[in-house]
Amino acid sequence: MNILIVDDHPLFRHALIHAVRYSLPQAQINETASVTEFYTRLEQGPEPDLVLLDLHLPGASGFSALVHVRAQYPAIPIVVVSAHEEVAVIQRALAHGAVAYIPKSAPPQHIGEALHAVLAGDTWAPPNLPMSSNDPRARDEADFAERIKTLTPQQFRVLMMVAEGLLNKQIAYMLDVSEATIKAHVTAIFRKLGVQNRTQAVLAISTLNVDEPKL
């Protein structure tokens, strides 16, 4: 059993590793701190049997990483582990393909329940969660999520860098490719997302955003 934890907070990764080992003592656990590291590990293989994914990560925007990884690696079950406890956020995560949602405040027994349920092929959500959603953004969000799924992994990386406000030459330098290659990627991204420019792309991405959790 190969489990990958994706979270940029070292202290919480450490705590989650212990919680997972308590429930699954034979599991091999790996960890990454960003979406870039996450994709590198997926591309280099072997694929993990289960991913525990935070929503707020360097190199991602809200649910974008969840949506895109689910499209590129549909066989990998993804459990969202987040500080968010709002019903709407939990419902959105499950609607975008998470097989379970574990709030970071959940007791250890809930983590164990969720992991065993997912590994048995089931889904899991916090007890007593209402499953109906009246969020008026749901249709627009679902439509954009379908477009995100059509991007290649490299196009997804470029899109996230565009969302951070980086110029083509900066993106080219960071990805070690030519600026012409980045321009070609950006053109393809705009076409797939149905937008005309960077501003529209960033506005579209915002439909998948999640506000920072309230402390």
Automatic annotation (TrEMBL):
<dbReference type="Pfam" id="PF00196">
    <property type="entry name" value="GerE"/>
</dbReference>
<keyword id="KW-0238">DNA-binding</keyword>
<feature type="domain" description="HTH luxR-type">
    <location>
        <begin position="144"/>
        <end position="209"/>
    </location>
</feature>
<dbReference type="GO" id="GO:0006355">
    <property type="term" value="P:regulation of DNA-templated transcription"/>
</dbReference>
<dbReference type="InterPro" id="IPR011006">
    <property type="entry name" value="CheY-like_superfamily"/>
</dbReference>
<dbReference type="InterPro" id="IPR058245">
    <property type="entry name" value="NreC/VraR/RcsB-like_REC"/>
</dbReference>
<feature type="modified residue" description="4-aspartylphosphate">
    <location>
        <position position="54"/>
    </location>
</feature>
<dbReference type="InterPro" id="IPR001789">
    <property type="entry name" value="Sig_transdc_resp-reg_receiver"/>
</dbReference>
<feature type="domain" description="Response regulatory">
    <location>
        <begin position="2"/>
        <end position="119"/>
    </location>
</feature>
<dbReference type="GO" id="GO:0003677">
    <property type="term" value="F:DNA binding"/>
</dbReference>
<dbReference type="InterPro" id="IPR051015">
    <property type="entry name" value="EvgA-like"/>
</dbReference>
<dbReference type="InterPro" id="IPR016032">
    <property type="entry name" value="Sig_transdc_resp-reg_C-effctor"/>
</dbReference>
<dbReference type="Pfam" id="PF00072">
    <property type="entry name" value="Response_reg"/>
</dbReference>
<dbReference type="GO" id="GO:0000160">
    <property type="term" value="P:phosphorelay signal transduction system"/>
</dbReference>
<keyword id="KW-0597">Phosphoprotein</keyword>
<protein>
    <submittedName>
        <fullName>DNA-binding response regulator</fullName>
    </submittedName>
</protein>
<dbReference type="InterPro" id="IPR000792">
    <property type="entry name" value="Tscrpt_reg_LuxR_C"/>
</dbReference>
